[in-house]
Amino acid sequence: MSSRPAVIDAALQSVPVAILVLDRRARVVAASATARAMFGDDLLDRPFVTVLRQPMIVDAVERALATQDPRAVTAHGTPHAHTLRVNIGTAGRDLACDVTVAAIDMAGGGVTVTLLDRSGQEYAEQMRRDFVANVSHELRTPLTALMGFIETLRGPARNDANARDRFLKIMESEVGRMNRLVMDLLSLSRVESEERRKPINTIDLAGLVRMVAATLTPTATAAGVTVHVQGADIQAWVAGDHDQLVQVFQNLVENAVKYGGSGGSVTLRLSHLPHEPVLRGPAWAVVVEDKGEGIDPLHLPRLTERFYRVDSSRSRSQGGTGLGLAIVKHIISRHRGRLRIDSEPGKGSQFTVILPQIQPTP
Description:
Blueprint lengths: L5 H7 L5 E6 L4 E4 L1 H7 L8 H4 L3 H13 L5 E2 L9 E7 L2 E12 L5 E8 L1 H36 L6 H34 L7 E3 H18 L3 E5 L6 E3 L2 H19 L4 E12 L4 E10 L21 H6 L6 H11 L3 E6 L5 E8 L6
Helix pairs in contact: 5-6, 6-10, 7-8, 8-10
């Protein structure tokens, strides 16, 4: 096995990028911890070609070894050229990496291969593109309808009072839908910007649950749904932002009424958890439960994604923007809590919000 200076090996372990050090025979003599995580622990003294089978990178390694030019050589082989982005298959997935090869001054010659994982940036960029596309679609649909109605009211329906009243009612509904979308987008942006700032105010969660239930009871009654509150006749102290927590439970109860109201009842149940394993301490749990149609488990992992809908046509007809649960997720994250979703078709749904318990300030 080729020798490697201990100092090089020690230094590589603290580097947050994948680096492989090759000797003049193109065998691996040192690897950073990130490289070991990408390619496995069994790297030392292996031929580089058996670690990474990318012809362009292998060719760059061979040129760097042949010339021993200390200037960086990319997979294109041009000194000082921009680093090439290459998709590398490892651990069952593809990583978008910036790869740079450079000769180093060590006995007999050698090179370093640096791989900077850009997959996170690629994913974030894809999310941004999807977000813009979704917002554009959500706004384009009502705008197209409005333009059509305006054109009709200016033309064939100019003097038709019945058509005018009907179209104006639909236009009002579409404008309301766009307004809700804009408000939810602003709310989501605000919540995301505050997510790293833990709330410091002390909130009585039981009182907040009772207030939300009382506020939404008229809406639920109009939809033929009865709202029940259980376990909220005590005090339950949490650190929280009052308005944001109200938004969380209003959103969950409104969803339960809209989509689970076929069961005729919605229950808010508060309970104490002496020890919540994930939060590593005592916590309070609020379950929003309905007896409706339920949700196929296939959809559960994606429910909190922006604009994800189980039934797009039904959600739009109910006035949903597709952002409510995304907002809920970010608010709960800011409160250092958890959101758990349980549902089965035909058995209703349970949305459980778990928040860390605190002692009230005297």
